[in-house]
Amino acid sequence: MSNIGLLIDAPILLVQLIIDGLLIGAVFALAAYGMALVWGVMKIINICQGEFVMLGGYVAVLLSEAGYSPFIGVPLAAVILFILGWLLYKTIIFRIVDHDLFISILATFGLLIILQQLMNQVFGSDVRIADSGLGTWFAFGGLVTISQVKVVAFILAIVLAGGLVYFLKSSRIGQAIRATAQNARAARVLGINTDHVYAVTYGLNAAICGACGALVAMAYTIHPYIGLPYTVRSFMIVVVAGLGNIVGVILAGLGLGAAENVAGFVLGAEYQLAFVFSLLVIVLVVRNWRLARKREYLK
Amino acid sequence: MSDKTANFVIFSALVALGLVAPFLFPAYMAQMTELWLFIVLALTWDLLGGKMGYNSFGNVVFLGIGVYATAVIQVALLYDVGAYNAARGGGTEFVFSAGDYLRGLALGLSASAILAALAAIVIGIFVLGMRGQYFAICTLGLGIAAGEIAGGWDWIGAGSGMTVPQPPADFPSGRLFYYLSLALAVITFVALTWVMSTRFGLAINAIRDDEDKAEAMGHYTTRIKVTAWAISALFLGMAGGIYGNLKRFIDPVDVAFAAPTIGVWMVLMAILGGKGTIIGPIVGAIIFQFTKEFFWTYLLGWQRVALGVLIVVIVVFFPQGIVGYIRDRRAARLIREKRA
C-alpha cells in the first residue's frame, strides 16, 4: 500500500502504468472477442481459451529461438492454432455443443489441463520470451518509457480485431456464422451446414487466440501456466461488455488492462492475479445484483 | 432385495472393510485416508452440484479455510503463529506434546467446521443468487482468488507455505487420521442422507428441477441454497483440517486452495459415480482414487496429462456416471417388461 504515496508524489508513474495497461488491454480485448464469438455462436464457454494464447506464444518463442523474426509467428500461430481448433472441434467439441453449459465448462477445463501439462512436460515451466529486437521510445523527458514492441502488438491487435469484424460482415462463411448465432435452427433450415460453421468458428477463435499469444510472447512473457488468467480476463470482458458488443469489448479490454496494471503496482505484484480473480467475482456479483432488481437472472 | 436393503448392505460392508483395512494393508494407509476424505469431498459437492443443480468449482475454498484454520489453531494454542511461520515451524523451540497435539487438533477441527460454514453463509449470500454458468465461473474465480490471497499473506506463511505441527515421535498419527477421516466420511454420508430425507431435501431437489417454480411455491430459495452450502462447508472444513495434517505441509495453491486440481477432482468424482444419486459419489471417489494412484505410480511425469484426458473422456462420453448408467438401464428394462 505504500506505493500509493509513490503515485501521489510522482503522478507521471501513473501515466506510465496506464499506458502499459492500455497497450496490453488490446490483446485482452482480442482474446475476449474470440470467446464472445464461440459463446455467442456455439453457446459454449471455452475455458481453454487461455491455453490457445499460451500455445500461440510458444510458436513465436520457438521461431525466435530458431533465429527467425517472431513477427512471422503471428500469422503462423494463427494458422497452426486454426488447424488445432478445427481438430479439437471434430474430435471433442462437437459432442458437447448441444449439452448444457456446465458440461462444456468441465470438458474444456479438461482440455486446459491436458494442454497446460503437455506444454509443461515438453518445454518446462520456465518463463520464455520471444525477442523482437525492437527498442524503446522515451516520452516526457525520459520519465515514461514506451516499448516499441508493445505499441506494435497494440496496433496489430486492433488491426486483427478490425479484420475479423470485416470478415464476419462480408465473407460468405462470416455471414453464415452470424446467421447461426442468431438462430441455429433457422440457419439449418435455410441450408447452412451448422456443423461446418461451428468448426470454422472454433478454429477461428483458436486462431485469434494464437495470434494474441504470439503478441504476448513478444511484448510480455509466457509460461505454461498463463492460460487460466487469460480465460478469466476474456470471460470478465465479455460479461461486462455483453455478447456481440465489439466496441464494448475493446473498451472493457483496455480498461481491464489499465486497472490491472495500476492495481498490480499499488497492491504489489504478488497480488496482481488475486486482483484479476477477485475482480471477476466482484463483476459477477454486481451484475447479478443489478439483474436481480429487474428479475432477469436467466438472460 | 430392495434398493434400500441393498444400499445398507453395501454401506455396512464398506464401513467394516474400512475398519479393518489399516491392519490388512498398512502400507497404503495414507492413500486410504485420502480416499475417505475424497468421499467426503464428493458427497458434499454432490449436495449442491447433483441434488440442487448448482455446479460449484469453489468448494475448495472451504477445504482451504479448514486446512489453514486447523493448522493455525493447533499452533496458536501454544506459540505465536507469526513467529512459528517465520521460523518455518522448524527448530527445537516448537514442540508439541501428545496431549497438546490432540487438544489442538480437536479444537482446530471444530473451529474450522464453524469457520467454513460461516464463510459459506457470507459468500453464499452474494454468490448463490447467480445461475448456471455464472455461478460455476464465479466460484472458480473464488477458489483461485482465495489461493492467491493466501499466497500473499505473511502471517500464515505466504507463498512458501506452512508446516503443520509435528506430533511426538511415537505418536500413531497415521492411524489417528485414518480413523478420523473414516468417521467423518460415515458421519457425512449419514447426515447428508438424512438431510435429503427431510422436507428441506425435497426443497433442494425442487430448486434443481425448477428454481422459479420452487420460489413461486413459497420457498425462500436463496435461504435454502445458502443453508445447503453451509452444510457442505461444515464437513468440508473438517475434511480440510484432516487433509492439511495428512499432507504435513500446506502450500497455499497446491494443497489448501487447489482449485485446478482438488476443486475439479471433486466434481469429477461425483460425475464419475453419477451425480444426484445416493451412493454415486462414493463409487466415483473410490474409482477415482484408484485411477489417480495408478497414474501417479505408472505414468509419473505424465500423470496430470493423463488425468486431463480422463476428465475429457468422462465428461464427454459418460456424463451420467456409473450409478446413473445402471439406473437408466434398469428403467429402460422396466419399460420394456411393462410393454411385453
What does this structure look like?
The complex is a heterodimer of chains A (299) and B (340). By secondary structure, chain A is mostly helical. In chain A, 76% of the residues lie in helices and 3% in strands. Chain A has helices at residues 3-9, 12-42, 49-65, 73-96, 101-123, 148-170, 172-182, 184-189, 194-219, 227-241, 246-267, 272-294; strands at residues 136-139, 144-147. Chain A has a two-stranded antiparallel sheet with strand order 1-2. In chain A, helix 2 (12-42) crosses helix 10 and helix 10 (227-241) runs parallel beside helix 12. Chain B has helices at 3-24, 29-49, 60-76, 81-86, 98-127, 132-150, 173-197, 199-209, 211-216, 221-247, 252-256, 259-273, 280-298, 303-317, 322-339, and strands at residues 162-163, 249-250. A two-stranded antiparallel sheet of chain B has the order 1-2.
Short characterization:
The complex is a heterodimer of chains A (299) and B (340). Chain A is an all-alpha fold.
Portion in strands of chain A: under 5%
* Strand order, largest beta sheet of chain A: 1-2
Give the CA-based shape of chain B: globular
Q: Hey, which two chains have the biggest interface?
A: A-B, 45 and 42 residues
Largest sheet geometry of chain B: 2 strands, antiparallel
What is the residue-averaged pLDDT of chain A?
86
- Just give the CATH class of chain A: Mainly Alpha
Order of helices and strands of chain B: HHHHHHEHHHHEHHHHH
How much of the sequence of chain B is in beta strands? Answer: under 5%
